[in-house]
From TrEMBL:
It comes from Salinisphaera aquimarina. The keyword Membrane does not apply. This is Pyridoxal-phosphate dependent enzyme. It comes from the Bacteria. Its cofactor is pyridoxal 5'-phosphate; Mn(2+); Ca(2+); Mg(2+).
């Protein structure tokens, strides 16, 4: 599978424009003081379906030929990609099936169904997801739209960074969470192709650190069932996203579960916006690594806001 080019990102941006939001960039004086940096938060929590995943899913679905689209689409997802694909399929008027771990947050399950997607449950491991999906594809003939290891998905996700670079053209660095790697791959392509010298960083849960370990080892490593509060970041890198990350991501920072929750709560309290745990990784990484970010102008991608309000991490006993 070829690596998307900057031209692919620009084409994706044009293709998806009628179906997504151009999301705002917010700042917070308190978080600037705490970090010693100037932080610019790209708020994909305000995106369609509540997450950046809308970008890649729409690009993938509207890149299909009419013959392919008639077969419907299918994927596996802990929530945000499934929601995004279900909505994108509905926009094109085609069928969508999403394999979801039985531990997926209920609001995300409900949202997939609300967009017209068919949900099939599996055990909460990456191998179980893939096995269940393969059965769906064999039985239905649906086109697989990968959550991250897909050139069209990566190109769509990269449109987020293209927007941010237009909104804040003088950034020193951009940081985003990494799970399967679609967003950080698209971000890296956008930044390294258009902003010479800009650093691209990723942030990852310490309890789901395959990307961090892969970068240090120089080879792709996978985890089958990592356990982290950041449910959107439990996937391991794919071959394509790993290739891009190895070539273009400058470093990956880890954050503990406690750091993730603390950063999530800070954003809720200080910025007055709803984000999910996976979004909090970049802020946690910045606060934990002041020597890297102090004095820098840093773009921070807030990836989504799909939260189970009945299970907020700071209200659990």
């Amino acid at each position: 599978m070829p690596i998307p080019t900057i031209d692919d990102l620009h084409a994706a941006r044009t293709r998806i424009a009628p179906w997504i939001h151009r999301t705002p960039v917010l700042t917070c004086d308190t978080l600037d003081r705490m970090s010693g940096a100037s932080l610019f938060f790209k708020c994909e929590n305000f995106q369609k379906t509540g997450a950046f995943k809308a970008r890649g899913a729409v690009n993938a679905v509207f890149s299909l030929t009419d013959t392919q689209a008639a077969q419907g689409v299918a994927t596996h997802s802990s929530g945000n990609h499934g929601m995004a694909l279900a909505r994108a399929a509905a926009c094109r008027g085609i069928a969508c099936t999403v394999v979801m771990p039985k531990t997926a947050p209920q609001p995300k399950i409900d949202a997939v169904r609300g967009y017209g997607g068919n949900v099939l449950f599996c055990e909460p491991t990456n191998s179980a997801r893939e096995a269940a999906l393969q059965t769906v594809i064999e039985q239905s003939g649906a086109i697989f739209v990968a959550p991250f290891n897909d050139a069209a998905v990566i190109a769509g996700q990269g449109s987020c960074a293209l927007e941010l670079l237009e909104q804040m053209p003088d950034l020193d660095a951009i940081i985003a969470p990494v799970g399967g790697g679609g967003l950080i791959s698209g971000t890296a392509i956008a930044c390294k192709s258009t902003a010479e010298g800009m650093k691209v960083y990723a942030a990852e849960p310490a309890q789901a650190d395959d990307a961090y370990r892969s970068l240090k080892a120089g080879q792709r490593l996978v985890e089958d069932a990592p356990d982290t509060i950041a449910d959107g970041l439990r996937a391991s890198l794919g071959p394509l996203t790993w290739q891009i990350i190895q070539a273009h991501v400058d470093d990956i920072f880890l954050a503990s579960e406690a750091d993730i929750v603390a950063a999530m709560r800070l954003i809720w309290q200080r910025m007055k916006i709803v984000i999910e745990a996976s979004c909090a990784l970049p802020l946690a990484a910045i606060l934990n690594n002041p020597e890297t970010f102090a004095g820098q102008r840093v773009g921070v991608i807030l990836t989504g806001g799909n939260v189970d309000l009945s299970r907020l991490p700071w209200s659990q006993s």
